[in-house]
Design goal:
2 domains; 15% strand; single chain; 3-stranded antiparallel beta sheet; 6 strands
Amino acid sequence: MSDSPETVLDDSVTFTTGEAAKMLGVSQQMVIRWVDADEFSGAYKVPGSTHRRIPGRSVKEMLARFGLDAPVSERVFTTGEVAEIMRLSQQTIIRFIDQGLLKGHRVSGNPSTKKGYRKIRESDLRSFMEAKGLPLEPLETFTKE
């Protein structure tokens, strides 16, 4: 798999759960749950093993559900991590995203409950902090950890 935005996302290629997780900016365990809940069309368990494979087309469809036009190729933060970086409450970060002040995308969590959570790309957080005149040192320190 290539980390570039030109990664082929059609039926000619399949991805491991780890590769799909990296492109979607979620954990591998989340991708496994989605495969097991039939959230990816055409995804399957490899016979005789616990491994799963996801067609490129299904990864592309999931990216579209998140409002993303290309695989995530940078660090992605949870609202809790952004709250820690900015020294604000997690609820404040969620409110910023929901009000359109901070760009983030919603990731579906448990398919049966339809609940989800939000993720923030590092570049979007950096832009937000710069626009608000906030120091970038907490972000730089956090990304080095």
